[in-house]
Structure formats: C-alpha cells, structure tokens
Write a structure and sequence with these properties.
This protein has 22 helices and two strands. The chain has 442 residues and is mainly α.
C-alpha cells in the first residue's frame, strides 16, 4: 500500500512501449535462397524516424528508477545499512535474470555453432537477442553510484542534475565538433544519470513544489530538442540508425538530453490525472502484472520474433509486401497480435524460472549491513566484470561474426559467481534475527 502506483505505472508503460516499438520496426524478408534478413526500417523508410519520439521512452524508466532507488537507499541507510549491502542487493535483482537469460541464449549459440548454422544467420539472431542490453550496464552503474549521487542530492538538490547536464553538453561538444575518441562514453552515465537524479528530486518534492517547473521542463526540453535537430547537427531519430552521424543514442547526445527533460516535464504534468485513474482497482489490476513482469518482458520480448520468423517466414507462409508500403503497414496489426500471444505464452512458461530466481535472490543477497572486508572487494569486482560483459553483448551481440563470445561469456559467469557467492553474515550467525531490513533495502 505504500508503493507509488504512478511510479509502477511509468515502469510498465515504458516497458510496454519498448516492446511495441521493437516489434513495430522489426522487418523480416525471406531471400530466394531461404535465408532471412532484417532490413533496417528507420534507414529504409526515413520518415519513420519521427516515430521514435514516441517510442524512445527510456528516460521515464530511469526517472522511475531514480525515484524508487532514492526511497530504497534512504530507508536502508536509516536502518543502518551499508552502501555495499544495498548495491549488492540491487545489482542481484537486475543481474540474476539477465545472467540466466544470457546463459540460455549462449547455450543455444554454442549448439548452433557446433552443428554448423550459417554464421551470418547466427550473428543476426545473436544481435536480435541482445539489442536491448545497452540498458543493463548503464543501469547497473547508476545503481552502484546511487549512494554518492543521493548524498550529493541531499546536499545540493536540483543543482546536481543541472551540473551533470552541463558536463554532458561539454562532452557532447567534444564528440561532435572535435571527434574526441572514447569521451562520449561518459555521456551514457551523465545523460541517463540526469533523469535518474531527477527521480531523487521528484521523490523529495523538488520538482513539484514550484508549479511552473514541470511545464518549464516540458516546454524548454521540447524547444531545445527542436532547435538542435533543425539548427544543429543532430538527427530526429532517437534510436540508432546505421550510418547516421552524429547519433542521438551512441553516445546519448544533447538532443537526447533535451528530449529526456521534456519527457520528465510531461510525466510530472500528467501525474495527477493518471494517479486518479490508477486509484480504480480495475485499472490497477491491469497495470500491476506488467510492472511485476517488467524484467521478463524486457529480456525475452525478441524471442517471439524468432519463433514467428521460423513458423511463418522460413516456411514461406508470411506475405511479404514492399517494406513501408500501405500493405506492409496493414499487416503490422496481425504481426503485433501474433507476437503478443507468443510473448504471453513465453512469460507463462517462465514463471517457474522466476520463482527459482526469487529463491536464489533471497539466499544470496547480502545483508544491508554487509561490510566484511574479505568479501567487500569481491562484490565490486563481480559488478565490474558483469558490467564489462554486458557492455560487450550490447555492442556486439551474442554471436559476433557468427562465433561464440568466449571472453564475455566467461566475464559474465565470473561476475555472477562473485555477486552470488554465499556470505556468512550477521543473520547467518544468528538465524533468529529477522531479515525485514534486507527485503526493505532490496
């Protein structure tokens, strides 16, 4: 009852639009020789890049994540929890399902590679199953940085996201104008970190105590975005388009930052009306399951595309009008409906796995007061190995060049092992001690 339904709604809304957007822009073509290829809709039909303004909804996911993390860390800190214990718990909630998903996909890649599946096909499938992974290392890093970021928030409030945004603009200038290598990587943390930090401010009322502020964020962000894509060098697409330079997402650009600020403002303006709607139990009962299954939906939503491709495209049953034609768009509705039905079946089949992951999390999550030096550094090493491996999957897929990715797979295995290693904690030495604080911190 203490949960903010609107925050849960934002997560569910963001995940729903991510899934729908990925499905909508996925185009499959069966070649005369029977191979399946996936032409890039945003590059082939350029006007569709405007659709990304509605489907690039990840700023709201970081906003909701910051809101939830700020409350969780504040409660854990008040209860005497440590940064290592809290970060370990948050990282495991994200990493366990990602590691299991990666393990299953990598097993399939290994089997297919061993039996001689075409490397180009394997690379395409491996990329499709990892296309959503960019979010995971960024979110893990922001979760790990939450204690110092929240400390800065308590001291300086709104000045923190303003400063982060200013540094992000300087960094983006170096990327676009000077072409400084690697410096753009900082913007993954800075740009998405702005909305994450604004989540702290939102939770503490700093964004709503002044009535004009949400409208100013929405209008100012939208005007800045319009100026940057018309007068500046940035494209309209908020999703990566092959060959497009500069890109708004690789790394996140000034235009992406402006659009994220506009989304935050719109989110705050819509909050009162949506909260009233969510008070209706019938509406809330429809939203709650999506939020509860958000990680499963996010990780597994491209599997139905592979299933449908095998069932209808490899067999030649699917009609294939010209990409972007009226007939092609007309077939998007049955395409989305079939994928939705398949995904519902996948989610249902994964329920036993989710229960097993919940039990594993309870057994391996460190206590909030975890600070033993003998294991402290192992936790951070495991987090670093996991972030590195997930970043590699996000950029190269699960089968780069049609081969099994040995080093990233070992890195993820190492990171997960270190993070899930059983630790002898205070509660282990005294089994009667309750673990309510652990659950609260997680």
């Amino acid at each position: 009852m203490s949960r903010d339904r609107y925050v849960d709604f934002l997560r569910a809304w963001a995940i729903g639009l991510v899934v729908l957007g990925h499905w909508l822009i996925t185009a499959l073509v069966r070649e005369p020789g029977g191979e399946i290829r996936a032409p890039e809709l945003l590059a082939t039909v350029p006007w569709t890049q405007w659709l990304t303004l509605g489907f690039q909804i990840m700023p709201l996911f970081f906003l909701a994540g910051g809101h939830a993390a700020g409350g969780s860390w504040a409660r854990a800190r008040a209860a005497g929890g440590t940064a290592a214990g809290w970060v370990g718990g948050r990282a495991l909630r994200l990493l366990l399902p990602a590691a299991v998903y990666s393990g299953l996909v990598l097993s399939a890649v290994g089997i297919c590679s061993a039996v001689g599946v075409d490397p180009n096909t394997l690379e395409l499938v491996g990329w499709a199953m990892a296309m959503q992974f960019w979010f995971l290392p960024v979110y893990l890093l922001l979760s790990a940085l939450t204690p110092p970021l929240h400390a800065a928030h308590r001291r300086w409030g709104l000045l923190v996201p303003v400063a982060m945004g200013a540094v992000a603009l300087v960094t983006d200038t170096l990327v676009v104008a000077v072409h400084t290598p690697y410096v753009g990587l900082i913007d993954y943390v800075l740009v998405w970190g702005v909305t994450y930090q604004l989540g702290f401010c939102w939770r503490d009322g700093l964004l709503t105590e002044r009535r004009p502020l949400p409208a100013a964020l929405a209008a100012g962000g939208a005007l800045a975005f319009a100026a940057l894509i018309t007068l500046g060098p940035f494209p309209v697409s908020l999703i990566l388009v092959t060959g497009q330079t500069p890109s708004n997402t690789d790394p996140p650009s000034a235009a992406m930052l402006a659009w994220a600020v506009a989304q935050v403002g719109l989110c705050l303006l819509a909050a009162p009306a949506v909260r009233r709607l969510l008070e209706r139990e019938r509406v809330w009962r429809a939203v709650r399951p999506v939020g509860g299954a958000s990680m499963t939906l996010y990780l597994w939503h491209m599997l139905p595309v592979l299933i449908v491709a095998a069932a209808f495209y490899l067999t030649g049953l699917a009609p294939e009008p010209a990409l972007g034609s009226a007939a092609w768009w007309g077939l998007r509705l049955p395409w989305l409906l079939v994928l939705g039905v398949v995904l519902a079946g996948v989610v249902r089949a994964l329920r036993p796995l989710e229960r097993g992951l919940s039990l594993l999390y309870e057994r391996t999550c460190p206590d909030p007061d975890f600070s033993r030096s003998s294991h402290y550094w192992l936790l951070w090493l495991g987090l670093a190995a996991s972030v590195t491996a997930l970043t590699r999957f996000a950029t190269r897929g699960f089968a780069p060049d049609g081969r099994f990715p040995v080093l990233p797979a070992l890195g993820l295995l190492l990171g997960t092992t270190l993070l899930t290693a059983r630790r002898r904690t205070t509660a282990d030495r005294n089994p009667a001690e309750p673990k309510e604080a652990l659950r609260e911190a997680a």
